[in-house]
Design brief:
globular, alpha/beta
Length: 280
């Protein structure tokens, strides 16, 4: 008997909800999930990253901040294997990202989630199909299992009834939440957020950051969040890394930042987004 296709299954009514996997055990928390040493990247004569050292541990939410054009998005793309550095070392989930072959790199990417700043939703797919896409690509789950997981993830981001809609029927904030649901579909060990509130109003931005923190707490997951919106990302982040002139200018908690006498750190944390800091 022919098995129903993924898209056929999505056209049907939802099967009963099933309990998802529980949070990771405390034993796993605190392990290093990302370690970067001496990371460098140039584009022509422009030095974007000039010897970045960075480390984060399981269960953390780390905010990477800095002026526009400082290389935050480049840093994320390199760390998740979408862009090659010019120099340096990257250990991602215990593996040398720059030494493994493409097949191993693809398997490693399946353990990582990525939320893009421009939504990156397929406009020819429904919301449900977009959320399911990484799970379908992995090829290890049955269509009905995928459908249950999709509905769980959409419910977690407060969008339980949008599975059949198309992306052009959603607001900007809803698209961001769909992106978050998709990033979580494979229960990733680490999620990268590339400016997840870009283009959103302050109220919606606050909701997105609160949602990031809530979904992170549900799974004890690890998140690296890039943003310039310091005020609204505060509830989501455990600590921060400030990039400036291709290097790490500051690293620490919000308390550390508020006590700092560094005028650039003060500009970011006491006056908002630091748009004047390091301006040419």
């Amino acid at each position: 008997m022919t098995q129903p296709s993924f898209r056929d299954t999505f056209a049907q009514d939802m099967p009963p909800m099933q309990a998802g996997p529980g949070p990771r055990t405390a034993k796993q928390l605190g392990d290093v999930v990302l370690r970067v040493r001496g990371l460098k990247k140039n584009f022509g004569d422009a030095v974007v990253l000039d010897g970045i050292d960075f480390e984060m541990r399981a269960g953390e939410v780390v905010g990477v901040i800095g002026p526009g054009g400082v290389g935050k998005s480049v840093f994320v793309k390199i760390c998740c294997g979408l862009l090659e550095p010019d120099d340096g070392a990257i250990e991602l989930l215990g593996q040398d990202l720059l030494a493994i072959d493409q097949k191993s790199k693809q398997r490693l990417r399946e353990r990582v989630g990525l939320v893009f700043q421009n939504y990156a939703l397929f406009d020819f797919m429904t919301v449900g199909e977009n959320v399911a896409f990484p799970m379908v690509q992995r090829g290890t789950a049955k269509p009905d299992e995928i459908l249950v997981k999709v509905q769980e993830r959409l419910a977690e981001v407060d969008l339980p009834n949008v599975r059949h809609l198309m992306p052009n029927e959603l607001s900007g904030g809803m698209k961001k939440r769909v992106g978050l649901a998709r990033a979580n579909i494979n229960d990733p060990e680490l999620i990268f957020f590339d400016d997840p509130t870009a283009g959103l109003d302050p109220v919606t931005s606050s909701k997105i950051f609160n949602l990031i923190r809530r979904t992170q707490a549900q799974r004890n997951s690890t998140c690296l969040v890039i943003s310039h919106d310091i005020d609204r990302m505060r509830p989501a982040c455990d600590r921060y890394v400030l990039l400036l002139d291709g290097r790490v200018h500051f690293r620490g908690t919000e308390t550390d930042a508020m006590r700092s006498q560094d005028p650039i750190v003060q500009e970011f944390f006491r006056k908002g987004d630091g748009s004047k800091a390091g301006a040419a």
